[in-house]
Design a protein that fits this description.
- The protein has a domain at about 135-155 and about 180-335: Nucleotidyltransferase, domain 5, CATH 3.30.420.
- About 40% of the residues lie in helices and about 15% in strands.
- The chain is built from 13 helices and ten strands.
- It has helices spanning about 5-10, 10-25, 30-40, 90-100, 105-115, 115-130, 205-215, 230-240, 260-275, 285-295, 305-310, 315-320, 325-330; strands spanning about 55-60, 65-70, 75, 140-150, 180-190, 195-200, 220-225, 240-245, 250-255, 255-260.
- Mean pLDDT is about 80; it is low at about 335-339.
């Protein structure tokens, strides 16, 4: 009898039990190391400290290849600067990455993997800090954009300059756009190329439009948006063909120009983010990166592998992770509040 016939006759539980027994008996190489070997065949290894390619092998440590740079004289391995750097339990971290595809809460991850909530929190934001480069693509053809406002959320902050809200109804909200809200620029084309970027506190202006989506739109693109004056001014100065819409009057032009895709994207984000019971404005850019990556991988055959590749290709993750607080404090400079 063939082995495949035996396996086909086993239940899912029996197969999982057999897999675990074989895994304990023979061991297995880390999933991250397997992907690193694939990356290293396609990409030239460079020093994460000075980006020099003048390096040589420097032995191994705990199964990881080490290198030494002849320019800065520093040593490193394939994980240096990535989200995996400093992680002691690689096996649990791999399980954490697999769980991240389902966008679980921090408490659920901590309970499932039997780790501390603080560890779960740090792992999440190290992972999210490593995928910032995936948020943004060159657009093709018709591009739809929109500005979205969210309430400023200071969830988890210890040094509030106001009394903490005991319930959401305690918050006095201002109507329309104000300095109590943050603006996000959302853009997508008809080929699932998309970006969602934190623009500024308060109302967007021409500079914030350019800084968020300007680098992804070319003159050959056609822009569709609402009639926001800052978007209209930016499109005019850039020389784009621009079609505007007022929801109460018109929804589509010439059967192809509309903003239905970007509005749908806004709604998908609102439903996705509800599971986290409020996202702190401090970490909002990271969650936008996560949502964009999930949308891009919705048709992927191996989303876990895609996440790990993005993770291992970013050698500035630890630096980005440590700068989250400083980046948030910069938003509180008065000049950023002008609307």
């Amino acid at each position: 009898m063939e082995i495949t016939d035996i396996l086909n006759g086993l239940s899912f539980e029996d197969r999982e039990c057999l897999y675990n027994q074989l895994n304990n008996e023979f061991g297995r190489e880390s999933l991250g190391i397997n992907i690193i070997s694939e990356i290293n065949t396609d990409k030239k290894i460079t020093c994460p400290h000075c980006e020099s390619s003048n390096i040589y092998g420097h032995g191994t440590y705990k199964g990881r290849k080490r290198y030494k740079c002849q320019e800065c004289n520093k040593t490193f391995n394939d994980y240096t600067g990535t989200a995996i750097s400093g992680i002691h339990d690689i096996e649990k971290f791999e399980k954490f990455i697999k769980m991240s595809v389902e966008s679980p809460t921090i408490r659920k991850v901590a309970s499932t993997l039997k780790i501390n909530i603080k560890t779960s929190f740090d792992w999440r934001h190290k992972l999210l800090s490593s995928i910032s480069k995936t948020n943004g693509d060159r657009f093709n053809g018709i591009v739809e954009c929109d500005d979205k406002q969210l309430d400023i959320n200071e969830k988890g902050r210890r040094n509030l300059k106001r009394k903490a809200y005991k319930r959401p109804s305690d918050r006095k909200k201002k109507r329309g756009v104000s300095n109590d809200k943050v603006s996000i620029m959302v853009a997508t084309d008809r080929e699932n190329n998309l970006t969602m970027k934190f623009a500024k506190i308060g109302r967007i202006d021409e500079n914030s439009v350019n800084n968020t989506i300007g680098g992804f739109i070319e003159l050959e693109n056609v822009l569709c948006s609402d009639s926001h004056p800052s978007i209209k001014l930016w499109a005019k100065n850039k020389g784009l063909e621009h079609h505007t819409f007022i929801a109460s009057k018109q929804h589509i032009k010439d059967k192809c120009y509309h903003v239905q895709h970007v509005n749908s994207l806004d709604n998908l984000y609102e439903r996705w983010v509800k599971r986290f019971y409020g996202v702190s404005t401090k970490y909002l850019p990271q969650y936008l990166n996560w949502f964009v990556l999930m949308r891009k991988m919705k048709d992927s055959l191996n989303p876990v592998k895609d996440i790990i590749k993005a993770l291992l290709n970013e050698h500035n993750t630890i630096s980005i992770f440590k700068e989250i607080e400083n980046n948030y404090l910069k938003l509180n400079i008065p000049q950023f509040y002008k609307t």
